[in-house]
Amino acid sequence: MARTKGSKNKKYAQGSYVKSDGKHIPPGKNTFSIRVDTSGVNDLLASIVDGAGAAVRPAAQAGSQVFSDGTHSIVDGMPVKTGNLRDSIYQVYSKANSKDGQIAEYHVSWNVIKAPHGRLVEWGHMMRYKTFIPKSGKRKGMWTTVKSKPLAQPKQVAAHSFIRRASVEYQQKAIEAMSYTFSSLMSEAIS
Question: Which residue, of 1, 39, 72, 83, has the fewest CB within 10 Å?
Answer without folding.
Answer: 39
